[in-house]
Amino acid sequence: MPDFLDRQHTLDTYWRAIIPFGRNVASYKFALAKSLIELSDQGKTSILLEELAVPFAKHIVEHVQLAPKQATSASSRFIEACRKRANGDIDDQELIDQTVRLGFNNVIDAFHIVNNGEIPVRFFVDDRKGGKGGITVTDELFRLRERLQFQNLPSEVEARWRLVETAWQLNLPKGLVIGLDEQGTILTASDRGRRIAVTRSRDALNGYQKGKCFYCFADITIEGTDETLADVDHFFPWVLQRLGVNLPVDGVWDLVLACRRCNRGIDGKSSRVPTKRLLERLSTRNEFLIASHHPLKETLIAQTGGSYSDRVKFLNSIHETAWQSLIHTWEPRLENEVAF
Asked: What's the burial of 146, exposed, middle or buried (CB within 10 Å: 0-12/13-18/19+)?
C-alpha cells in the first residue's frame, strides 16, 4: 500500500495526499483546495481573507444546494450562513463577512496535515497572526500549476467532494455501494434499490493513480479529447458478463484508468485477463483506497471482503474464474517508470 504514496514524491502527489487523507474531512478542505487553484491563476502571492472568502464561500453555497449536509458536526454557523445565501436570505457581503469570521477557523491550520503530521511542502503560509490578515501563496503552488497533472486536479477535488457528501446525504456510509453506470462514465451510488449519480468516473479514479495509466504508467488526462484521455477500464473484462459468468465487474474495485494503447491498442488488453503481477497491483490499489476516508473504503469492503485475507481470496477466485473463461492473459509490452 505505501507505494501509492511513497514511491515518487512530487508536488501533485503531495496535493493528492491532502485531498483524501488530510485531517480536515469536512467540505471546507475541498472548498479551500478549489479556491487555491482558482486564485493561483491570478499570480498573487498575498491573499487577504476577504479575497479568499469569495471563491471559498461560493463553492460551499454551490454544494449546499446539491447536498444540505456539508460537515460531520451536527451544526455549523458558517454552513448555516451558506444555506441562507443559497435561499436568498442574506446577500453576498453578509456571507463574505460570515466567512471571514467563521469559515477559516480550522481548515487553514489543518490543510497540510496528513496522517497526523505536516507534509514536507506547503502550498501556502498562514499569515493571519502576522499582521497581513490572510495567507501567502508559496512557490510550490505556482510550480504545481506548471506540472502536466495540474489540469486534472480541479476535477479530482470536485469528484472527491461529491463522493463524500453523497455518503453524508444518504446517511448510510457503511451500506453505500458505488459502481459504474451503463455508459461507463458516471459513478453511481446504490441506496435501497435506487441508483444515484455521484460524479464522473474518470475524475474520481484519477487521483489515486497519480495521473498515470494503471498498466504502463504513461501520463493520462481526464479532460479533453486528445490521445492521452484515459479510458475507464474493467480490470476483469466486462465481456465476462456477456458470457454468463456472474462476476460483479461494474464495482469500483474492478475499475481502473488506462491509456488507449493499453486498453484498446493493437497490443492492448482487450478481452484478455491481466496477469497475476497486475492482479497484485490491483490488490494494492484497493487496499490504498480502503485506507482512505469513506465512501470508497466502505464500498470496497462491501464488494470484496471485510478483511485483507478475505479480499485476497476474492481477487484470486475472480482471477481463476476469469482465466478459465477467457484463456489468454495479458500485460503491457512496455512500461514507463514505475509510479505505484
From this structure: exposed
Three cell numbers, residue 98: 460570515
Is the domain of 120 the same as that of 165? no
Please state, in angstroms and rounded to a whole number, the distance separating the CA atoms of residues 313 and 306.
11
Q: How many domains does the chain have?
A: 2
CA atoms within 13 A on the CB side of 250: 17
Which of 146, 163, 192 is at the close of a domain?
146
pLDDT at 7: 54
In sequence order, what are the beta bridge partners of 135? 47, 126
Burial class (CB in 10 A: 0-12, 13-18, 19+), 229: middle
User: Which range of residues forms the domain containing residue 136?
Assistant: 3-146
Residue 169 in grid coordinates: 446525504
Q: Which residues of the chain have pLDDT under 50?
A: 1-2, 5, 173-174
DSSP 181: -
- Cell numbers given for 248: 460483479
Residue 61: what pLDDT? 96
Instruction: Name the residue type at position 323.
Output: W
CA distances from 157 to 29, 160, 193, 291 (A): 9, 5, 28, 18
Decide the pairing of beta strands 177-180 and 186-191. Answer: antiparallel
d(CA 317, CA 294): 26
Predicted pLDDT at 15: 92
Q: Tell me: the pLDDT tens digits for 273-306?
A: 999 999 999 999 898 888 876 567 878 888 899 9
